[in-house]
Structure formats: C-alpha cells, structure tokens
TrEMBL record:
The keyword Metal-binding applies. This is GTP cyclohydrolase 1 type 2 homolog. Belongs to the GTP cyclohydrolase I type 2/NIF3 family. Transmembrane segments: none annotated. The lineage of its organism: Bacteria, Bacillati, Actinomycetota, Actinomycetes, Mycobacteriales. GO terms for molecular function: metal ion binding. Homohexamer. GO terms for cellular component: cytoplasm. It comes from Gordonia phthalatica. Pfam families: DUF34_NIF3. InterPro entries: DUF34/NIF3, DUF34/NIF3_bac, DUF34/NIF3_sf, N-reg_PII/ATP_PRibTrfase_C. Keywords: Metal-binding.
Amino acid sequence: MSPRLREVIDHLDAAYPPRLAESWDAVGLVCGDPDEPAEKVLVCVDVTDSVVDQALADGAQLIVAHHPLLMRGATTVAANTPKGRILHRLIRAECGLFAAHTNADKARRGVSDALADALGLLDTVPLAPEPVDALDKWVVMVPEGNAEQVSEAMFQAGAGSLGDYRNCQWSVVGTGQFLPVDGAAPAIGAIGALTRVDEQRIEMVAPHRIREPVLAALRAAHPYEEPAFDVFEQAGVHSDIGLGRVGRLPEQMTFAEFVAHAGRVLPRAEWPIRGAGDPAGRIETVAVCGGAGDSLIGAATASGADVYLTGDLRHHIVDESLRDGAPSLVDAGHWGTEFPWCATVADILTEIGCRATIFHEPTDPFTVVAGPKERP
C-alpha cells in the first residue's frame, strides 16, 4: 500500500524534528493534503521552476526540499508571482511540497553529515553542539506534610521527567525559619513570632519551555503564602546534534591536495571550489558546514580543525579570520555543500516504501563563468 503524505511527514519529522529548527525558519509542509498518497517523491535543494517541471513530468506526488519556498514573509501567492506560480502549479497537479531546513542542518543524517561522508571524514561530532532540550533545575522548600502534594502538582505540570523515567526528584529534610511581619497571612506561625518548621527540600528538573506551568502548579499546591524556591538554568550538556561537523581524514594530505580532493568528490556548480591557506599545510582534522557557514569559523578554529569547508565565504571575513588564527578555509559553494544530503533523504524515504528520485542539476543561481584569465 502506498504511503500517505501524513506518514511521510511523520517519518521526516522523526528524522529531522521540527523543534530543532531556528525560530526564524519555516519548515514542514508548505502545500499538500496529508491524506493523499505520496509514493513518488522528488528530492532537491531549491524549489525552482525546473524542479517543478521534472516533478510534474515524473508524476511526483511530493517534493522534499532543503530550502523553504516561503521562508521569508510573503503577502501574496498569486499565480503571477514567482513563488505563487510554483505553488499554483503544484496544487493543480496535486503535488505536495515539504521543507527540512535548519532542523536537517542539526540532526544526525543531516546536511553536514552527508557533506562529511562525501569527504570521507571519520568519527564526526557536531561543530556547534547544542542541548536537545534546555532544562531548569527546581529547588523547592515545603513543610514535610505537604511535600507530596507539591511534588505531584509539579509532576502533573511536566516536571520530573528524565528520558524514559517520570516523577524523578531528590529530597532531604532540614529546618526552615521565617518571621511574619504586619500584612502577612502565614499558614504556619503568627505575626511577629519567629517560626521554625521541619521542611523538605525538593529538587527536580523540567524543560525551560514549561517554566510558567510548573511555577503555577507549585504556587497552587504550596501551603505558604510566599513559597521559597529557586530555579537554575542548567548549563547545556552537549548532545549529538548541532550545526556543522568536525572529524578526521583517514590519512593526512596537504591543503592543496585537500582542495583537489574536495573538487573530485563534491558536486559543484559552474564556478570552481576555492581555498585560502598555505598549499603545503598539513590537513588531518576537518570541519564542515553545509550552506552558508561563515558564522561558524570561530567554532571551527576552537575545534582545532586544520581546515574548514563550507559555502558562501566572503572576502573580508576570510581575510580577517586567517589573520586571527583561523584554519585554512575552503568555499565549496552553497548548493554544492548541501546537495549530498538529497541522497540521504531519498534513502530515508525508501524506508517507508516511497520511490524517491533526486533533482541532480545544479540550482546554484550562478550559471555563467568566465574562463581562466590570460596572463600577459
């Protein structure tokens, strides 16, 4: 039985969770009916008219793209606009459109993994790792007799979960004291009287994103007018996700040899791969980032990489970075560093019975390049 679009979306979202996408990004389903079949899929980097031509000629029911068609704000999708024209053609042909962008940049089996694999890198780790879910640590002081009700309320709000475990907490009993003054309405003790109470110190974690619900639950269940509690933002414990990758070559080579190696194994558009660095420099540790990656030059430098390969490197940034101790730099193009991912997506789609093809023609906008300049 042919997979429905809904199944394809679920499978892609499992591989590239939407929560990993940057806040400014626009990932997921752009058009299409989740209940319709999506067996024939075309995978690409950019959604262009040529991509749509091939999709419709092949009878594709879905296009999976890396770059979102509607990432920047649009006030119209009229058919006489470039983006609107594409959407109208797809909708008329009952062909859906799905995008996995920065979520596919960060997740494993993502864009930079495919790039690193194409270069033959081993033992890769994220170049800019980040935690899967930022955690708060909650510390709450509560009278012993009320500890269970407060804990349970916080659990119900989503606190106390660690992996496959729920209702996780740590506690110890101590002595709390307070002095109610005029205007207070103490649940224990009296105005002007120093009060000491056997209290339980409860500690548990909760995702930062549910801080407000956890706080509301704590206040509602706590017997005190002014509960004593602390919230600590935990330092990020690096996971296996994040932008870019850094790994090692099976054998050392010179920088000139590495640039030539990249030229052989990576797809490229009309303009050549270019490098900045000492041609005789030794290369073993390699950092990469698919797409426009000059923002990670600092991370590549901190990683101890001998070279950093990405796309869209700019003149002044390269010049200043090399002066500041950055590794050798290679610009292999935006499309060229992201295209290897298309094969990964095609493999992921075959896992649920899709027939996936890849749009191989470069969608890099620079298509006319001057030949080598004759020297006088």
